[in-house]
Amino acid sequence: MRQGYYYILLLLLTACSNPAPKAEPEQNIPITENNQNMQQEKSGFLYMDKKREPFTNGRDNYNEMLLYAIGDTVSVEQLKQFCSNEKAKFTDGMFHIIVFFDKKENAVFPNNPVTALFIEQEQLQHIKAVYTYNRVNGYSKLSYYENNAWESKVDEIQIN
Fold first, then answer.
1. pTM of the predicted model, to two decimals?
2. pLDDT tens digits for range 110-126
3. Which DSSP string do the residues of 96-152 spell out, in sequence order?
4. What ranges do the domains of the chain cover?
5. Residue 13: how many other CB atoms lie within 10 Å
């Protein structure tokens, strides 16, 4: 009799327990700076840092420089597409400069104002490309260097 009671109790417990958990629907993960950096690193563009220099002229009150590391795997076409995508994001400020370095450990800001760019050989030897966008007058060019900004002739490409 006692065994029958345990058997019925076991049946009730298994019949009333929750079934195996259902697979959760795929969630849309919001893009944050962290997972955006991971996505960019996979595409060859690794965001390193950003610097804004304020000034007063009324509405467009800062210049900005962004640093990226790209290594040797990024093509000129990928750079052009990346710059075009970034240009669309610039909705305020005046000058936006993106500097692409060969390695992340070489990505440093210049010692002078960001609009004066780089003048030191040590820094220029690690720069692969520079994108400059003046939001006020529409100037938008990518300066690309075959080896680096110190040794190579510049190839300027208009970015629309």
1. 0.73
2. 988 887 888 899 999 99
3. EEEEEESSGGG----SS-GGG----HHHHTTEEEEEEEETTT--EEEEEESS-TTTS
4. 34-158
5. 9
